[in-house]
Input
Amino acid sequence: MFVSENLSVNDKNRLVIGKNDTIELAEKFGTPLYVMDEDLIRKNCRTYKNAMDKYYDGKGLVLYANKAFCSLYTCRIAKEEGLGIDVVSGGELYTAIKADFPMDKVCFHGNNKTYDELELAVKNNVGHIIVDNVYELDTLNDIAGKYQKIMKIMFRIKPGIDAHTHSFVQTGQIDSKFGVALENGEAFDIIEKASKLENVKVTGLHCHIGSQIFDIEPFCKAAEVMMGLIGEVKNKIGIEIEELNLGGGYGIMYTEKDDPIEYDKYIEKISVIVKSEAQKHNVKLPFIYMEPGRSIVASAGITLYTVGGVKDIKNVRKYISVDGGMGDNPRYILYQSEYSAVVANKANAEPCEKVTVAGKCCESGDILLKDAMMPKIEVGDTLAVLATGAYNYSMASNYNRIPRPAVVAVSNGEAKIVIKRETYEDLIKNDII
Ligand code: LLP
Output
């Protein structure tokens, strides 16, 4: 009935997440409120991990892509579930360090890592740096030399795959700011150059073709291309690549129009391809990494809002305004992303009218749902927007000086705050008069 499996309705006709009544959560913690179902996050982690064990004999590591929702809390869950993580900035790396995350299971990404960020990674013995470009390669080699270390690196390759997703989140094609291309020989040049440097060791190749992709084909194609490249690197420059990181990007269900594949199927299919391609190209079976972000946390999250103004502009549109918006969820204004919502205090009510749910920012595009069929919504109702666990909190802003909401984690009937609500004082704490 709902887009996420962990939601139900209780006998008071209220939406329930992780055995918690959402109206009680809203009353206790206030709105807007991000609620994360910890049991579902852990279940998703296990689905990937078990698939890696089952289909690839455990010769791989699933990395949680932190950018989907980075916090001490999510790092701790990933650690407890035996996953590695992908970090993409000094801030994400710092969070992982503070969460006592095992650094050998961290891959550091980014197309423009600064000297300071690389130094932080080197000092903390980050497992792999996913090198994006020649400038970064030289800088890293220098820093590693300064600390007398040899850093393991992978190269971000653009495999030339066109994945069917929003153009802002497509990354596998040559016209992308990420990584080095195959078509023009850049990839070979950088691998060859790195092989001659003293303080880096090329262990792997990486690709990530995009995000919110439902089709399994582009992932299979990417695995094939990357295995071909491993073969060519061995033949042409005599380097044996031992590791292959295939990125993330697996789609999830935001509305009933979305049709995701079960997550373990990706690893099942890709394992078969990597194994057969390894034989075909006469190379060692690589240790593989996968980097799901969205599919681990998105469905586990909902956002609770309180309905304020209801504005019915006859023959034009009916606006329902809530106490959050693009500050806590900028995905509509950025990508026109579609969401599903439930009126949490009358969760079984039938949809009866078309409404547009707007946020409270001073911006006309500040919309959460456009022209959605909803039950009758009244001032004071609690609206739950579903599947907001990924790229909501992590992309939140203080636009209009609106404090970021708290994050509450629920598990088996218990609820605890894992990130405090920002206060007005927090908003001005770095202002200097
Ligand atoms: N690995 C790399 C190198 C990535 O760049 C990304 C996402 C992932 C893994 C995780 O992809 P996922 O499994 O979450 O799709 N803000 C956008 C999504 C941007 C994705 C950026 N990279 C959104 O809200 O849709």
User: Anything to note?
Assistant: The mean pLDDT is 95. DSSP finds twelve helices and 21 strands in the chain. Residues 65, 67-68, 86, 109, 169, 208, 211-212, 247-250, 291-295, 331, 335, 391 surround LLP (CB under 6 Å). The radius of gyration is 23 Å.
